[in-house]
C-alpha cells in the first residue's frame, strides 16, 4: 500500500492511552493548548497558532491531505480519563508516510509520546499494510529522537532544512522503520550527468538500478533526479540535457552497492542496460561491474569482495 491511499481511521488503544480519530471541529479547542504554546511548537514546522480558530484551520488542512491519518491522544485511566493530551498520526501528501506526534506541555515526561508513536507505527506497518514510516527530527531535538527510537525508527539519512519562520537552517535526521528489512542499495553523493535524452536515460537507469524519480523538470524533461533509496534525502544523482552541438564529456560515477551488487547486476541486465558483464573481483578487494551510457558515462557499481 502506498502512503497516498486512504484507509478508514479506527480507534487505537495502548496500556494507558486511547487514540481517537481526529475531529478538527470538536478537538481544536483542547488541542490549542499544545498548538498555541510556543514552547511546545519550538521544533515544529510552523509557529504557534494565535487562537483556537487558527488551530482548527490548521488541523483541518492537515487532516485533508492525501494519506493523512490523525488521532487525538487521550488518557484512558485515572482522574483525567478522556482528556485530550495531544495528537499523533501519519502526515499526508508526503512521499513516505510521516509519523508525527505533539503533546501539550503538562503531559510531557510520562512516556505518553513514546506510547502513542509506537502504537501508530505498529498500526501503520501492521493493519494498514504500509511499507514504511519515517519521522523528520531535528538533530538537536533529543526528546523526539528518543520517541522515534522507542517507536522502532532508526536513522536513514540527514539533510539540511530551514522553515520559513526560522532565522537559521537546521540539520534534520530522517528516522525510519520498514515493515520488512530494507538494506540501503547504494551509498553515494549527488552528481550531474549531461545526456542527450533525459527521459530515455531516466527510464533506463531507474529500471536498471531499481531506483525512483525524485523530480523531473520540463516536458520533455531537461533535468531529472534519480533517487537510489526509498527514503527522503538518500543517495541520488541528476540527469541534465546537454547541448546537442557539444561533444559528450564522459563522467565516471562510482556507486557503492553494499550487499546488493548481484541483485543490481541482474536488474540492470533484465532492463537491457549495457553492462560490462558479471561482477569482477578487483585487486583492491572490491567486486565491480560497469553500466556504460550512450554518452560514455560509466556507472561503476561495486560491493565488498
TrEMBL record:
<protein>
    <recommendedName>
        <fullName>N-acetyltransferase domain-containing protein</fullName>
    </recommendedName>
</protein>
<feature type="domain" description="N-acetyltransferase">
    <location>
        <begin position="16"/>
        <end position="153"/>
    </location>
</feature>
<dbReference type="InterPro" id="IPR029068">
    <property type="entry name" value="Glyas_Bleomycin-R_OHBP_Dase"/>
</dbReference>
<dbReference type="InterPro" id="IPR016181">
    <property type="entry name" value="Acyl_CoA_acyltransferase"/>
</dbReference>
<dbReference type="InterPro" id="IPR000182">
    <property type="entry name" value="GNAT_dom"/>
</dbReference>
<dbReference type="Pfam" id="PF13302">
    <property type="entry name" value="Acetyltransf_3"/>
</dbReference>
<dbReference type="InterPro" id="IPR051531">
    <property type="entry name" value="N-acetyltransferase"/>
</dbReference>
Amino acid at each position: 500500500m502506498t502512503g497516498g491511499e486512504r484507509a478508514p481511521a479506527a480507534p487505537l488503544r495502548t496500556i494507558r492511552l486511547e487514540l481517537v480519530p481526529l475531529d478538527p471541529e470538536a478537538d481544536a479547542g483542547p488541542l490549542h493548548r499544545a498548538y498555541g504554546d510556543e514552547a511546545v511548537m519550538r521544533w515544529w514546522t510552523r509557529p504557534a497558532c494565535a487562537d483556537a480558530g487558527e488551530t482548527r484551520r490548521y488541523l483541518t488542512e492537515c487532516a485533508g491531505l492525501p494519506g493523512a491519518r490523525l488521532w487525538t491522544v487521550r488518557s484512558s485511566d485515572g482522574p483525567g480519563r478522556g482528556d485530550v493530551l495531544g495528537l499523533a498520526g501519519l502526515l499526508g501528501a508526503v512521499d513516505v508516510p510521516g509519523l508525527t506526534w505533539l503533546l501539550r506541555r503538562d503531559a510531557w515526561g510520562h512516556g505518553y509520546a513514546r506510547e502513542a508513536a509506537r502504537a501508530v507505527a505498529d498500526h501503520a506497518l501492521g493493519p494498514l499494510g504500509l511499507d514504511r514510516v519515517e519521522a523528520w527530527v531535528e538533530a538537536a531535538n533529543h526528546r523526539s529522537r528518543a520517541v522515534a527510537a522507542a517507536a522502532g525508527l532508526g536513522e536513514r539519512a540527514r539533510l539540511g532544512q530551514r522553515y520559513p519562520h526560522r532565522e537559521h537552517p537546521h540539520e534534520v535526521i530522517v528516522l525510519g522503520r520498514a515493515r520488512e528489512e530494507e538494506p540501503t542499495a547504494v551509498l553515494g553523493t549527488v552528481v550531474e550527468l549531461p545526456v542527450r535524452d533525459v527521459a530515455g536515460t531516466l527510464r533506463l537507469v531507474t529500471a536498471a538500478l531499481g531506483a525512483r524519480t525524485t523530480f523531473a523538470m520540463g516536458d520533455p524533461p531537461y533535468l531529472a533526479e534519480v533517487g537510489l533509496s526509498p527514503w527522503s534525502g538518500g543517495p541520488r544523482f541528476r540527469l541534465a540535457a546537454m547541448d546537442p552541438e557539444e561533444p559528450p564529456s564522459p563522467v565516471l560515477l562510482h556507486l557503492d552497492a553494499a550487499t546488493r551488487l548481484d541483485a543490481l547486476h541482474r536488474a540492470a541486465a533484465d532492463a537491457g542496460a549495457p553492462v560490462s558483464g558479471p561482477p569482477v573481483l578487483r585487486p583492491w578487494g572490491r567486486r565491480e561491474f560497469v553500466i556504460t551510457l550512450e554518452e560514455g558515462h560509466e556507472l561503476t557499481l561495486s560491493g565488498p569482495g
